[in-house]
Structure formats: C-alpha cells, structure tokens
Amino acid sequence: MRRFLVALLFPLVLALPVAAQEVVGEFSNDWTGNELDITAFPDPEVKGITCHIVDFDRSVWDRLSKGNWFEDPSNASLACRQTGAISIGDIDLSKRGEAVFSERKSLVFKSIAVRRIYDKANDTLIYVVYSRQVKDASAKMSISTVPLFAANPTWEKGKPK
User: Fold this and answer.
1) Which of 159, 26, 16 is nearest to 87 (CA)?
2) pLDDT value for 102
3) Which is it for strands 76-88 and 154-155: parallel, antiparallel or unpaired?
4) Whole-angstrom Cα distance, residue 42 to residue 77?
5) From CA 4, how far away is CA 91, in angstroms rounded?
6) What gap in Å lies between CA 115 and CA 153, rounded to an integer?
7) 132: phi then psi, degrees, rounded to nearest 5
8) Which of 140, 119, 118 shows the shortest CA–CA distance to 72?
9) What is the rounded CA–CA span in Å between residue 48 and residue 80?
10) 3-class SS shares of the chain: helix, strand, coil, % to 5
11) Is residue 122 classed as helix, strand or coil in its secondary structure?
12) 43 CA to centre of own chain
C-alpha cells in the first residue's frame, strides 16, 4: 500500500524544489507501521554545518483509520552540529534570519521549516524548526544552536562587526 501512495504522490514531488537532503535513519514507532524518519541536510550557505530532523511518517493503517490520506503530523525535533570546517557564505544577518529547509506535511498548507538566525552578540548560529500551520494556538517548534567562538569559521564576506 505504501508503494501505491508513493506512485500517487510521485508527480507532486517532482514539482517541488529539490533540497540536498538524505534520509539517514528510519524505524517503526508502533505495531501499526507508523515510522520515525531521520533526515540530514547541510546548511546551504554555511559549509560544515549539518542538521538532522526527526519527524513522523504515518502508516497506511493509520491513514485508513483516520481518513486523512494526505497529511502527516507536523511534529519535528532538530539538532544541528559542526561536521567540518565552517565557511559562512552570504547569510541573512537580520533578526528574522532565513529559511534553510522546508518539507511538506500535507498536499496544501501544512509544512515544517527550518530557519537560521545569527546571534551576533554570542557568535552563534541558531536553527529553529517550526510548523507553518498553527492549530488551536499550539505552535510546534524545536531549537538547536551552533556556537562559532571555537570553530574559527571563514566568513566569505568578512565577519560582521
């Protein structure tokens, strides 16, 4: 049945932008076949930083019993670490930061996203994963930080003053 869903959704996936990501782990969460997937992705503008997200993939049984075929929960947890020499490209230094990763959790509105923000005062990169769909005033988010003070990063445009 999972192959049927993949075949059904494959054309939609082709229309989405491709992100440099890789599923590095997956395991069953319960007897119904729900899975936890662990995805790794490098920060596209900061070489040497890799983030890992774990999120939920609903089973066919769960989809049949709940009737919502095309939606996964938007819960996710995040960890970002230095995995090589850090080279920082043209990043957004504003307090809003910039999106570095996004993954759809339904056909229409629901997705999770990762945003990077530079904390100049503490010389730290902050990564926040959050749901773009707030339901019942319950925003879901997780945070990870990568301190740069001992990493000796290279700034392509010079370190901000």
Assistant:
1) 159
2) 78
3) parallel
4) 16
5) 40
6) 20
7) -85, 0
8) 140
9) 10
10) 10, 50, 40
11) coil
12) 10
Task: Quote the CA–CA distance of 21 and 23 in Å, as a whole number.
Answer: 7
Q: How many residues does the chain have?
A: 161
User: Amino acid letter at 143?
Assistant: I
Give the pLDDT score at 119. 97
Residue with token string 């043209």: 90
Closest CA to 126 of 138, 116, 140: 116
Does residue 115 surpass a pLDDT of 90?
yes
Name the residue among 125, 49, 121, 51 with its Cα closest to residue 92: 125
Q: Which region holds residue 65: left if phi is over 0, alpha if psi is between -120 and 50, else beta?
A: alpha
Distance CA 113, CA 10 (A): 21
Angle of CA points 151, 154, 156, to nearest 5°: 150
Cα angle at 121 between 120 and 125, to 5 degrees? 45
pLDDT tens column, 43-98? 999 999 999 998 776 555 555 566 665 555 557 789 999 999 999 999 999 999 99
79: exposed, middle or buried (C-beta count within 10 Å: 0-12, 13-18, 19+)? middle
The pTM (predicted TM-score) of the whole model is: 0.75
